[in-house]
Specification:
It contains 13 helices and 19 strands. With about 450 residues, the chain is α/β, with parallel strands linked by helices. The longest helix is centred in the C-terminal third of the chain and has 26 residues.
Length: about 450
């Protein structure tokens, strides 16, 4: 049985993290010792993102840094997995020779064999079909306390003009509902209280294997599991949100009233250029309908500034929409030209510096909206999942806070990490809510 030491670095999104957790489980089952430090490890797996330039640069920097440790004799082999390995196979081989093995997104299940072969002196490459059904593999949960991601589908069919994900991750494939429920049950039995449902497109769930949208049905089944307290929905595409889903979100007490709906823009011409379905008026009507039907709803969205064709008028329309809609959580990214995508060859490209400037203006505007939201929370009692302690305060997340992307509430009390409690909001500190635990 193997007993070599293996480290793993997980980069990119939550979906990538789930793949990292699956690889950790497979490696442990194969007898490898999992370690957190690169120095002294027999091999490191770098699970990369290759979505935009910033992510690619981060992945390359990690490979180069690992290569320096390897050259100094402080690290053994380097195995590159994930989206960068899938997208830039030949480039990594020619330009990053420190990489000893490559694993594409269809071959995570082969990781133990790849590690073995690499440690034995081979330089393997594993690239199975990225359009194959999703592998059902166990996981080592690395998040917490008391929360975990639950991936319900893989790949994407949306073909947004700026995005290379369909080419990297393959077509959209739903996991069978019974497999998802079985995994969720096991997570709940292990102490997970919050399940964060993730996919490139949650709202398309079921259309490929059941011939219908089945997200609402899945949520009803997950809500029946003992131990599950919160269900959080990430990445709902606006054009696939139907009345059944809205009704389920509104009525299901376990679904937190927080929806992540990436709209990318509001100008209809820019949306058309992006190959997004639905125009600006559709998005405005949808958000209005959601707020009317789901009390105290918190919305999160992602935006892109500087797509070719975005001028001052289109950008100002986006800013005005944010002032009116007062979306509580916003992430914004300057447009990153990605080779192989339709937007890459579009004329009227905005300078990257200007796209960055516009993204900064969006965040300035959003800071004011967040100040208004925090002010409205004063005096309210909120349910909080305690996540730990920091600087004399307990820390936690409310229903309005998704991990790693949103805020933290700091409060006094005796709650332990992983427990839910009630917190009276009494103030704010550096843009974050502050409160005190109360007995009810």
């Amino acid at each position: 049985m193997a007993n070599e030491k293996i480290a793993l670095i997980s980069l990119g999104c939550a979906k990538n993290l789930v793949n990292s957790e699956q690889m950790l489980c497979l490696l442990s089952d194969a007898g490898y010792e999992l370690v957190s430090e690169l120095e002294g490890a027999d091999a490191v797996i770098i699970n990369t993102c290759g979505f935009i330039d910033e992510a690619k640069s981060e992945a390359i920097a990690n490979i180069v840094d690992a290569g320096l440790l390897k050259a100094d004799g402080k690290l053994g082999k380097i195995i590159v997995t994930g989206c960068l390995a899938e997208r830039y196979r030949s480039e990594i081989r020619s330009q990053l020779p420190e990489a000893d093995a490559l694993v594409g997104v269809g071959s995570y299940g082969e990781i133990a064999d790849v590690v073995r072969r690499t440690l034995d002196g081979e330089r393997p490459e594993a690239y199975a079909d990225k359009n194959a059904p999703v592998d059902e593999v166990g996981r080592f949960i690395t998040t917490g306390p008391a929360w975990a991601y639950l991936k319900i589908a893989e790949g994407c069919d949306n073909r947004c003009a700026y995005c290379a994900i369909p080419d990297i991750r393959g077509r959209f494939r739903s996991r069978p509902m019974e497999n998802i429920i079985a995994e969720a049950k096991a997570l709940a039995e292990s102490g997970v209280k919050e399940l964060i449902l993730i996919a490139q497109d949650l709202t398309r769930y079921g259309t490929d294997i059941y011939g219908r949208r089945a997200l609402a049905e899945l949520c009803r089944a997950l809500a029946e599991l003992d131990g599950v307290h919160w269900l959080r929905l990430h990445y709902l595409y606006p054009d696939e949100i139907d009345g059944e889903l809205i009704d389920e979100i509104a009525a299901n007490e376990k679904i937190v009233k927080y929806l992540d709906i990436p709209i990318q823009h509001i100008n209809s011409d820019i949306l058309r250029r992006m190959n997004r379905r639905g125009d600006g008026e559709f998005i405005r009507a949808l958000f209005s309908d959601l707020r009317e039907r789901i009390p105290r709803l918190v919305l999160r969205t992602s935006l892109i500034t500087g797509l070719p064709g975005e001028g001052e008028a289109e950008f100002e329309e986006l800013c005005e929409f944010l002032r009116e809609a007062k979306i509580e959580r916003v992430g914004v990214f300057p447009y990153s030209p990605e080779e192989g995508t339709p937007a890459y060859d579009m004329p009227d490209r905005c300078d990257f510096e200007e796209a960055e400037r516009r993204a900064g203006l969006i965040m300035e505007l959003q800071n004011g909206i967040m100040d208004e939201y925090n002010a409205a929370m004063q005096g309210r009692t909120l349910e909080v999942l305690c996540t730990g302690a920091d600087g004399g305060y307990l820390t936690g997340r409310t229903y309005a806070d998704s991990p790693d992307v949103d805020g933290t509430i700091y409060f006094t009390g005796k709650c332990e990490a992983g427990q839910f409690t009630k917190v009276l909001v009494t103030g704010e500190m550096d843009g974050e809510l502050v409160g005190e635990e109360i007995d009810e």
